[in-house]
Write the structure tokens for this entry.
Amino acid sequence: MLVTLFVLSYGSIRVDRQKQIPAYYELEIKGLNYRIKNGLSDFEQSKYIEKQIKRFIQRWELKGVSIAILKDEKLVYAQGFGVADRQDNEVQPGHLFRVASVSKLLTAIAIMKLVEENRLALSDRVFGPGAILDNQHFVTVRDKKLYNITVRNLLAHSGGWSQRYGDPAFHSLSIADKVGDTPPATMDTYSKYIASRSLSFPPGTQVSYSNVGYMFLGEVISAVSGKSYEDYVREDILIPNGIVDMHIGRSDFALKYPNEVDYFEQTGSQLIFSYEGSGIQVPKSYGGNPIELLGAAGGWICSSVELARLLVLIDGYPNVRDILEDSSILEMTDNTYAKGPLGWRSTTDHGNWARTGSMAGSVAMLKRQNDGVSWIFLSNTSSWQGSKFSYGINSFMQGLTNKVKAWPQQDLFNYYPIENLPLAIN
């Protein structure tokens, strides 16, 4: 039996039901990353974009880059540049990248979802008797101010920890040694550590960037939801909204996902001791940093197109219904000192919101601009500038998008390869 199907601008297509349904459902299960390929974003100014991005890649010695651009919440541009791996395969929009601290945005979304479900409050205390994490590690603590830390404090980087002596999240071997644990460190290790240390300032009074605070937010989400942190985010937030290929990454090269890129560090990068405690020296990007442990603070991997899909669901623009209430989005973008923003790296009163991420072997940034344009920039190569590289990315991408006066009239979120179009079921 032949049926007629109308999809987007493809017109009327007659297809065979028996041959087409399996291919369509396979694409639906795999998601956006397997539907969108390079070459779908050609338009009048795409050659200009390509030229500028290739110059940027060359200037900063990046191996591969994935770009996704939104206009009025439509995915109008998605393209990969450079190489994805050491076999010189081309970057595609569906390749997975580590996104480092962009992970904090996912964690904040999960917290706000639990708040909306009345399972949690931002004012809830996190550590100690009667708090969310009420376990043996926090029965006795060195600094009683630890008991005053709230969920909001952790989200806003105002929990009380500083990086005066380095970032504990990236010194797991030292942390394990300080508390007498055998590596690799676990969240129990970090629980012992914070219980045995004094805070640098009273919670809620100052701001000091804290990966450890977000690592514990992953524990909060698990305790409240009854699921692992990753399972809650995937099963309750991402997958129901068609985002099926985001995961907590893995430190070991042998365990990377099939469509995950390889990671490259800047020239002159030094080897460090493996976080596993083996005594072997390894690259930071492959065994130096504990990706799984970073989890809620910096462990996610995703593609530019699925990250773009998540962005339109929390951006406050009216064309696509957000998955959070307006009040939650306002809470997350409040930039009052020591109160917010939550999850975002920076927000302005003019409606520009940014989230950045950087670690050995990866750079990530997403931005919601107040002109209706939003964008994602991912690279599998770290910069010697570290976290400051985000300033260069922002300047480049803002200048690039400002030069384009007319974006393609398409929404790649709705794109299907023509041979796999879904069928209308009568």
